[in-house]
Fold these 4 entries.
Entry 1:
Amino acid sequence: VGYGLHVVIDHGNGWTSMNAHLLKSFVVVGERVDRGQTIALLGDSGNSSGAHLHYEQVLDKTVQPAVFNGTPFVYNTSLSSRNCGDSPVAGDWNGDRSSDVGVFRRQADTAVFRKLWPDGTTKLGPFGLPTDTPVVGDWDGDGQFNLGVWSSPSATFTLKKANGGEHVFAFGNSSDLPVAGDWNGDGRWDVGTFEPATATFFLRDALGNVTTKAFGSVSSLPIAGDWDGDGRSNVGVYNPTTTTFRLAMPDGTTKTVVYGTPTSLPVVGSWSAGSVSKLGVWDTATGVFSKRFSGKHTEKVRFGRSR
Ligand SMILES: [Ca+2]
Ligand SMILES: [Ca+2]
Ligand SMILES: [Ca+2]
Ligand SMILES: [Ca+2]
């Protein structure tokens, strides 16, 4: 009762942190969360005397002093965290049918996509907010990927149009995670959400029709790709703890691929020009993308800021 609505995060190695007196939580027990993810709204629940955040970090059940950027926190002073690291993305930025990589970088008040072009240059795409989750796809079907973000608090997608405009619409719930793919194979990418509590994908086509598919578990990270090359994207999940991809094949079977490290996040792309999607990971500890062409062939490229 004292802490009201609270979220405890298990950071591994005996470390946990608690965020208490929350107004609303966007996560469920067992869900895997990442840096930069909006997990809750600050509030005044429980034994609280006004809206504030009760933050605690604990090592082996003993509360530890909070330190931000090497500076011990002092009550009634202000410190900004700088640990919202890059999030990996992959898409065909230049339209040569081969996917490129990039990162979504959260800054103090803004966010920017940093896109690695095939010639080695980095192109910047300022878009979204630091509280957003990146989602990229070829929304207009011209062969070049476009930017987009998902806002958890408002459960809305904001997709950037090639002409500079934005397509904003509500979809899913605040506790969902976003995915993108061409579900109906018309060449224009669509979006969807994964609901961890029920391990269910909700895939939305351009007309607003929704297809549901139960796949994965509460701790799954959702992915999508065209695993069989028929032009329609399929869903899948990644579990960093076991470094295991599980892909939902169109014939109803599940394909399992072990790849990556426990500090990896999944990325999916057509690394060699073609319609079949390939797997990949970005290692948060090293900032290295590993693009898996086959079981025997991986290409590595370092890009983005390691954490
Ligand atoms: Ca490309
Ligand atoms: Ca496009
Ligand atoms: Ca489509
Ligand atoms: Ca397919």
Entry 2:
Amino acid sequence: MSVSEYAELWEPRPGWLNTASYGLPPRPGWEALQAALRDWQVGATSWEPWDESTTRARESFARLIGADAADVFVGSTVSAALVPIADSLPDGSTVLVDDIEFTSNVFPWKVHEDRGIHVVSAGTADFVDAIRPGIDLVAVSAVQSATGTVLDLAKVVAASKEVGALLVVDASQAVGWLPITVDGVDALVAHGYKWLMSPRGATFGYLSPRLQERCRPLAAGWYAGEDAHTSYYGTRMHLAPDARRFDQSPAWFSFVGAAPALELVEEIGVEQIHRHNLALANEFRAGLGLPPGDSAIVSTELAGAEEAFAAAGVRAAVRGGRLRVSFHVYSTEADVRLALKALDGVRPS
Ligand SMILES: Cc1ncc(COP(=O)(O)O)c(C=O)c1O
């Protein structure tokens, strides 16, 4: 089925061009969430049926990134998911980030400065060249939140391998529209509330088996137990032998909304979503006189754009003084026309 045949699963008000901020829920996710909330309100069920969604979402995420579900943990936020990795770094390690990296992938390293963890940064254009001997860990987004720049992951993998650095990828702005796998990556984390169209609070992390061995499961509680149901009380601790020991006990309803959304992304197909999003982004770029790009996020400097969009009811974002417009599976050519029309008075003629 084509993307347009799935369109009736969303109800966007025209002009939602800000999936880089949050994605809109597809009907299966929305309805599963409403049903769970109704059951919660009256105490209709125990929590276990809600939790089945966590397993489904974990497995779907693993398939989306070409990983084994046993190497995927669940959590609440990107920053919290990175905590065990940052903790595993030896004192004095050097971490390389992009100058404009989203801070949830900067602060988790920087809070270790008091034990000599040194965070250095490089511009997006020079990033691969900055992966030099002495860098112990590279922490970078697959798609930059502020600019939409798509990382050359293959080059970053090769350079990191060459200098023996661990590679940690924040794929929050990528998984769901950009084909990506964990080949050569030590960790990949993604919050699902943007391109995976899930409620906020459903975060996923891949940890390579080698990195799992190095990390302490700092968020372990009952849910990280080998058998969560026999791990409620007492001092006996048997944690899951796989990446599940890094699980943060899940916010049930976030995962209830996440599982159907991730499965729908799989059903439609990331390749197809990628083509759809790029076609719209490039149509928008053409309307602004920009050359075609490779991102679902368009970032451009355009004075007066924010006001023009607000007046026309187009919802986009401004990041670092630049207009940021993002297109996803439910975006249409009508959205592109609406946005370009709104910019009539301010775009270059
Ligand atoms: C690249 C990236 N990572 C992470 C997040 C969210 O971080 P957290 O899950 O820590 O709230 C965002 C939100 O905009 C983001 O753009």
Entry 3:
Amino acid sequence: MATRTEAQEKQSAGSAQANPFQAIVMMAGGVVLPRCLHAAADLGVADALGEEEQKTSDQLAASVGAHPDALFRVLRVLSSNGIFEMTGRKVRHSPASRLLRSDHPHSLRSLARMFGLPGCWNAFNEFGYSVRTGIPAGTKTLPKGLWRYFQENPEAGRIFNEAMVGKAQVQVPAVVGAYDFSRFGTVADIGGGRGHLLQAALEANRSVHGVLFDLPNVIQDAGAVASDRLKLQAGDFFKDALPAADVYTIMEVIHDWPDEESVAIFKAIRKAAKPGATLLVIEQLIPEDKAPHWAKMLDIHMLTLLGGKQRTEEEYGELLRRSGFALERVHPTRSDVSIIEAKAA
Ligand SMILES: C[S@@+](CC[C@H](N)C(=O)[O-])C[C@H]1O[C@@H](n2cnc3c(N)ncnc32)[C@H](O)[C@@H]1O
């Protein structure tokens, strides 16, 4: 019997082989799909639908301030892809559209909005530049960089930080379940955003203390997680000293950076680390198979926006070696991220 991955490979390659014309047309013009999702998330259509059994697209358009026929057509595309359910002009929630509600405990509304933010989306207008040169198109569209864009646009920064909590909701329990933090005194989460990983690690390990390190505008947005066991430290990992700790977590931060900057971040951790400290690099590794996989798509976002990349285990081993760490083992988790465990060499 084919494994799930083999089946996926066959299915994706098979549909393009069975109908190559359709495959090219759908992909070439497929940009409408994310744009419809961004618009629905921005407008708050899922919130406007609420828990009601159903509403018409005209009622929803009136609630969110959209053009009735335009919103109907957007919802027709989304519902034909499983986001909302439609019968004629009547709209109901699907499991996926419920995740677009702001009040859903696992809301992905901000994640959907984040990919559509001008700072993120506009880089794709210059995508050809990235493909020709390997240089992120973001250097053209955001000359001061993405992190400065979030500092200068607080609402965009808030959406990004909230999006990170949303994207990590499956990763965080999986990481805390896959790794024993109880033997450590202090854990520092570098580039930890709103502190969602650190807070969960400390909740599961009552004797452990933590330090959340991130840029000042992000730390300002993370006040809710501070406690006598969880301290906040604002700074820039290229300029400022990092906190001393027994174990460092750094989740989906290194994928934002090219190799040289990644080595500089690891070296800054190495410099601050207590003797014998452990480093846990938490990332989505590029799978070896040919099936469609989110890590392969995320890799293109990194190429375009930031000049970072999704890496293989071997590539992380090499970066760590250049930074004075030795990769010890890789812990898979029940989510899309793996924990790459390293020790100061
Ligand atoms: C992709 S987010 C990951 C957030 C969180 N670790 C997670 O996985 O949910 C990258 C984080 O790196 C932080 N960051 C970027 N540049 C930084 C710098 N120079 N110093 C400290 N943190 C930085 C960002 O503010 C952001 O919170």
Entry 4:
Amino acid sequence: MITLRGAHALRDADVILTDHLGPTGQLAQIIGEEAVADKEIIDVSKLPYGRQVAQEETNRLMVEHARAGRRVARLKGGDPFVFGRGFEEVQACAAAGIACEVVPGVTSAVSVPAAAGVPVTNRGVVHAFTVVSGHLAPENPGSLVDWGALARLGGTIVVIMGVRHVAAITAALMAAGLAPETPAAAIQDGTTSGQVSVRATAATLAEAMAEARITSPAVYVIGDVAGL
Ligand SMILES: C[S@@+](CC[C@H](N)C(=O)[O-])C[C@H]1O[C@@H](n2cnc3c(N)ncnc32)[C@H](O)[C@@H]1O
């Protein structure tokens, strides 16, 4: 799913800061083995509920290498501005007076459902899709998502980072009026050789995901498109 522009940025870099969701394992395929051997590759992954490289440390490394005159590529998963902290990294570069270019990516919110045969929109079926973070449960006071409004909107709902709270999220949507029989689909490791997906309904999604042992990284889609 890397873009040509992204591949060029990687090829032109001296240092590549990688992420666990980016196509790090395919670097040799993207830019060639010899090109990879020439570069310094630094892993700055933040694993969900696991090893975390602090954002400040990532920012510091980008700035330090750039100040030393190296070309730095920051390789992230999907689109850097979709729940990706990409803008924070741009701000860190700006604050340090370092010029940078943002290369938009193909977000998992759209590519992962597509890889499992689920279009986020379809003519005559739905005219809106909303991408939400399910990182916080609906009852968490820190949550900025209006789940009730989403249930009433009637469009496709794409939840990313929502595996842990799927039961609470589907319950909140149904409590706000979403029909329990609304089709749903969950996809883990989408677009990779390890892709796994399940189809269910809003009412059965949490159970179906548990049965299929769906774990992060996964995206789920709730809406009529998931039944196509
Ligand atoms: C921190 S967010 C980053 C999203 C990224 N910026 C994007 O645009 O795709 C990480 C979440 O994206 C989703 N995700 C990323 N890659 C995925 C994949 N290959 N399969 C399923 N979900 C994925 C998961 O919900 C994961 O928890």
